[in-house]
Each structure stands twice: as structure tokens, then as C-alpha cells.
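User: Modeling request: complex.
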Amino acid sequence: MDIVKKLKVSELKGRGGGAFSVALKWELVKKAKGKEKYVICNASEGEPNVFKDKFILDNYLSEVINGINIAVDFLNAKDAYIYLNKDYKLKGDIGKCIIFKKTSGYIGGEETAAVEAIEGKRTEPRFKPPFLTDCGLFNCPTLMNNVETFYYVSKVSKGEYNKTRFYSINGDVPNEGVYELPVDMSMFDILKQTGNYPDFDFFAQVGGGASGEIILPQELKKPAFGAGSITIYNKDKTDIYALMEKWAEFFHTGNCDKCAPCREGAFRIYEMVKNRDIDYEVLDEIFFNLKKSSFCALGKCIPLPFESLIKKVK
Amino acid sequence: MKIRINNKDFDCKKGEVVLDVALRNGIKIPAVCRHTDLEPQNSCRLCLVEIKGKGLQTSCSTKVENGMEISTESAEIKRLRKINLELLFSQHIEQCSECNWSYKCKLLELARKYEIKITKFNDRKKDFPTYQFGPSVVFDSSKCIDCKNCIAMCQKQGVGFLDNKEKDGFFCTVPGQTKECVYCGQCITHCPSGAFEEVSSIKEVEEALKKGNVVFQFAPAIRSSIGEEFNLPHGSITTGKLVAALRKLGAKKVFDVSFSADITTIEEGGELIERLSEDKNLPMFTSCCPSWVRYVEVYKPELIKHLTSVRSPHIILGGLIKMSEDNPIVVSIMPCVSKKYEITREELKIDGVKPVDYVLTTRELGRMIRKNKIDFEKLEERDPDYPWGEATGAGVIYGATGGVMESALRTVYEKITGKSLGDINLKSVRGLKGVKEAEIKIGKRKVRVAVINGLGNIDGLDYKKYDYIEVMACPGGCIGGGGQPIPIDDEIRKKRAESLYIIDKKKKIRLAHESPFVEKAYREHLKNKKIIHKICHTTYGNNKNK
Ligand code: SF4
Ligand code: SF4
Ligand code: SF4
Ligand code: SF4
Ligand code: FES
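Assistant: Request completed. Predicted assembly structure:
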């Protein structure tokens, strides 16, 4: 069975957050016309409280490299790049992969922005279409998957994939760490099984330590989503304004400042939250605008943590 | 193919963006950051429209697809535009009365239309600095709305002086540290918020006018653009009104720089003939664009010896005026901010005297005329002063890209062959293409020429292939200069240039060397080699002054 068939059967989804079918993406790049093709492993992991890619790179680098090589062979790609978080170090053999250290903030993780950065341009998202699968690095069809995805590609190819994924768990928990558990396991079970289920009143942030949604205890029956992180906050001990300030600062300083809704909107959120002087009507307008008119997904995602926190916890 | 906008069908071509089709058909969509010279920046988000099946999309960057259904207005779109406008104003310090756009910017128009409160947020840029680039350009970063057009344009010019630097959590537009500005002023004409402008000389000129000895001279490219300062249609020819306005402002005399463009042509033609015959330092490059000269001096010094030694027309005329008038203050009205730099060049002084004292841009002149409450449109047309008034057609087309080349070739051909050109309209060097080429047989020799329209196009040019190359830093040449009325785009450039060619066509004398006035100037003033050298020629490379 060729690799795409195996990937199809495995139902493996991208683990960068977008959860796009891996088999489908590989086929798109395969079919795309182009003189050269490129493979990029996105190891830019840049959001607070998400650290599973680092864990995988530290412990299973050879599996990741194997996954990348499978892609290179499959596509007959010219080069493979590892787009690496600048604080991460790779210990071990990386074969012919080229390391490109990410220089910019959070936005550097956006796929098209990563490509711009590797091309030596300003780290800023591109207008889509065209998509990377058609016209990516150096205008060639490009396959970009994240570290965890390549890890599982390797597993799938060896017939060792058992529908698991990696979860980063931290916050007010006794057993902070990265755990490999079934993809469809409920967050409740994950917390129980890892000995992290709190015995105090709490809320969780799921899918990213800034852009993740706020989840209440009674909502934990579903699986985790996004980048697979769960951060637990003790409700009584958490200053939700300080928390929002942290997020807001992260977005304001980590975005690329290309478009007005996100550049100015994120700043005004930060300003209001920092001064603890929030005009909820204005905040609503800014959120509406971010969701509807931001250039890229980062901007569109900014309102989610704030809105869910305000609605559920405030 | 066809697309449907607001329930009406419109024809369009593959590759076009939705915005252009809408605007062409009179459907208004607000678009602040879009400039048709540049790739869409996608930054202001005001041009959002609803596309069936695709949701909200920016019309400036969305290409048409057959059968696309678009609506340009809805309650939601209106709400988004309002918020984005308020956010844009939150980073823009309004100084409308002194602004380049003088209340005519899109921002203000939209603020009125969408009834926004421009002060909804505090101005986050109130403490942002103002920078000055040499004697030419001022950048007030507190007005900047971060569209990044100036950076893209400066890149396109092949300079890349402007940069995007992180500061306190924001990426800000700033002058870079590693490059040097060449003062083309294209950042000014591509800025939607008026953050860039010329270093103003209005005050100095007003002072000078009080003394009563100001001699104005105006560039070829002004006559078809100054009208735009007073809301006349693009490309309106207003030479007579321009002269009248300058007289009203208190000019002692008013001269037309097209006249000395003819002298430049003759001198430059002569130099070309000499170099061709000796096969020396070819190709010869034009040098009447000071931004190009500065670019050579800073970035391509190996080309210095290829520059013609001839001075630019207003410097020559300035020298003649200084020779013949009684203690004049010479003020050039130019389409250009680089000319403000040019007049500071030490080696242009004639016996210690500057040929030109001040340069005003077309926009500055517009501002002065408005300030003096002169009703431009109602002015009675006047003629410039003689003996140096009447210019040939060749001198007028200097204002458009290819004009210098065309004028020179008209003259060189006759000088070498003794015959006149069959058709003096050298169409192949006209128009807005970035690089234009032509080959004309002059006597036994095939002379290969190129015209570089827009400084960035010099990059990668295999200049050794040519004998003579014209370079104008500004796209379109001086009619699209950094000192011209804004907005400027290809449509507007075409109209302004077209008007110059119309003037040329109507002139009785269209060849520089046939001008009796030029002949007279040589007879009376440029009597010998030494004087000609002093007034009409210069040197390069010893000057890196900022
Ligand atoms: S939404 Fe806009 S400013 Fe924010 S990261 Fe994306 S492109 Fe940059
Ligand atoms: S004047 Fe020209 S070179 Fe200088 S910053 Fe502006 S665009 Fe760049
Ligand atoms: S200075 Fe003007 S052109 Fe440049 S980024 Fe700011 S608003 Fe845009
Ligand atoms: S092209 Fe004309 S307007 Fe532009 S910098 Fe050169 S001389 Fe000035
Ligand atoms: S004009 Fe389209 S985003 Fe600014």
C-alpha cells in the first residue's frame, strides 16, 4: 500500500491546529504542477502553554525526520526545511533537512508567513489563493505539516499508528507534562488519567495558551481540540484581568501589524484590559471587526478566548 | 467574462480585481491602501465586499471569476467599515490644513460618508517623530496609517531606504539605517495619509517676494498638472493661467524652463555626437533627474563617467537669469522634490553664486495660490517673459518619460546627417513601459537607445547594449514627479503626458536647434566655450551631501 493510501485509512489529521486531512493535503501537492516541490516541517510552536512539539523533537526526532523523508520521497521534493522555534535545539541526525530558525513572534507560525520568512521576506501572511499546495515556497507547490504530523506519518507508514495524539497539560496541576493518549479521549478522562483533575473550582483553556477557548468543568466531556493543550486555572486564585492582559499583550506584540483590524484592534484590547478600563460596547465592536475583517486566521481567532472567558467566568 | 455587482452584470477581463471593475463602472467602494502601481497591501480592509460563496473579501485583491456575485453594501459591511475607519483615525494625527491632500484625502471623505467619530480612540501616535530626508522629504510618522505603500514604492524604485521596524509592540514605518534616500519623492505620492511631504520653502519664497526681485521659472511638466490643484480635469493645459498666477504672486519676471531644456538638448546632443565619434564612455546617460544622479553617486559610482556633463534645464536657465537680471532671486516651480536637493549641490555654483535660490513643488505653488485667494480658473492667460519665453515643442516634452531622448534624437539626427528626420514623433520612446528601446540609423551608425521609466527599472539593465540612455526616477517622468498633485496613477500620468505631446504638436518650432531664441541666448550670453562650460556643464561624484 502506498503512503497516501495508508494515510487515508489512518484518517490522520494535521496536528498544527487546522486538523486538515493529511492524505488530502499530500495528494494536492502531488498533483500540483511545478518545476520543484518543497517540504516544510513547521516546528515554530509559539503559543504559551503549548510545548508538545518540543517534547516530540527532544524525544523522537528520528521519527519526525523519517516522516519528513517519506514526504520528500513521495513528492520527489527538492528540499525539506525545518522551520524551527528559535529557542528549540535539535539533538540528533536530521539528514538533509535544512534548518530555518524562526525570527518573528507568534505570526511566524502562520503557514504563508513562514514561507515568506524562509524566502527572506518580512514575516507576514500572504493573500490566499493561491494556497501553499499550489504555490508555496519560491512559488513552488509546497507541503507544510507540523512536527507532530510528521511523527505520526512515520508511525502510519510503519503500521504503528494507534490513533493517539500528544497533549500538553499545565497550569494549576500536579503533573504538568506531555502525554500521548487517544485522539478521541474526553478531556475529563485525560485529566483523570494523568492525575490532573482538580479538586477545586476551576476553568480550563484548551487548544492554545492565548488563542484557546475557555472551557468549564461541565464541558470536559468532549475531546481536546486545536493544538491539543489543556491549561487549568484555579478559579478563586486567578485574576482574570491579569490573564486577559497576558493574552492581549501576546496578540498585540506577536501579530504582524499588516492589517488595521488586528494591528489596531489588538492594541486597543490590550490598552483597555491593561488599564482595567473596559468599555464592553467598544470591545464588542473590535471583536466583531476582528472576526469579520482580519486578513488572516490569527486576527480572526483573537476574540475567542476573551469572549469565552467573559461569558463563562466573569 | 462577466460578474454581477449589486444585481447588475458587468464585463471584465481575467486577472482584474473586483475593485477595478466596480470603480470603472461608477460603483463606489472605499479603498484607502490600494495603489494601482503596487501589489495590494490588504491593510485597510475598507474595500470588503460580500461575494456569494466566499463571504467577505477584500475587493482590491480578489480576482474576478466568471459569474461571481458581489454585493458592495450591507449593514454588516457598513459596520465594519465604520470600525476600521475609527481604528485608522486612532493612529493618524489630523493636520488637514497643512496636509498634501488639503482636505481631499480619502480618509476624510470616508469619515464624512460613514459619519464616524474620528476621535473615538486616543491618538496612539501623538508622540511619534518627524524625520527629514535631506533637503527634500519630510516624514511625519504620527500621520502614518501603516499601509506600507511607501516602503513598497521605495523598494520598487530600487532603493529600499524605508523600512518596517518593531518598536513597542508595533511594526512601524521608519527610515532605514543601511541605505540612503535619493529624494525621488515617490513615497510622498503613494502615501494615502499625507504622512510624507516636501520640505517646504513657501515661507522663504514669501519673504523673497516682499523684496520684489523674484524671478520664477517653471518646469515643462507643470503646465499640464497644476490645474489639478484647483480641481480641473487631469492633464488640463494651463500654461497661460500658470504664468498669470505667478505674476499675481508678485513675480518680477516669469520664464519657461522648456526654453533651457532646448539648450540642454543642444549641449547634450553635442556631447553625444562627440562620444559617439570617439566611442568613449558609452552609453551616455542623461543627468537632468537629480534622483538618478544621486542614485549613481551613492549606489553605482562606476557609472559616474557615463553621465552627461550637461546641467539640468532649470540650473542652466537659473545661471542665465543670474547673469542677465539685476540681483534676482530665482525660484523654480518644479514637479520634483529632488530639485530641492539639486540646488544645494556645491559644484553648481557659478563664481560662488547659486543658479537657483529656491524650489517650490507644484503642490506648494498650489497652496500659495490658494492662500493668496487667487481664483486660478478665472485668471486671464498671460505669456511668459522673452527673450527666454518661447520654447520649442522639444523643450516641452521634457516633462514626460522619453521626452529628453526624443528631443535629443531629433537634434542629433539632423546635426550628424544634415537631413531632417522623416517623422519626428519617436513613438517608441513614449509611453509608460518601464524600459523602452529604440534603434535609429544616424548616418552610418545604428544608435541604440533606451529609456528607463522609473528608477527601479535600471536594475538588471544590460546598459552596455546601448549608446544613450535616459533615466527618470519617477514613473511617467516628471509629469509623475514627487512634487506633483496627488493622486497619481497611470491614467493620470497618461493624461498629463498626452497634453505635453499636444502642445508639442501645435508648436511651429519643434526642434531645439531651430529655436531663434536659443540661438539668441548663445549669441548674447553663451558666447564662448568657457562661459558655456560654466553655465551649462558640471561634474559629479565629489558630492555626497545629504
Ligand atoms: S490578522 Fe492581520 S495583523 Fe493580524 S496577524 Fe493576520 S495579517 Fe497580521
Ligand atoms: S524619496 Fe524616494 S528614495 Fe527616498 S524614501 Fe521616498 S521613495 Fe524612497
Ligand atoms: S507613511 Fe503613508 S504610505 Fe507609508 S505606511 Fe504610512 S500611511 Fe502608508
Ligand atoms: S523624474 Fe523628474 S520629478 Fe522625478 S525626481 Fe527626476 S527630475 Fe524630479
Ligand atoms: S483597499 Fe483593499 S484592503 Fe485597503
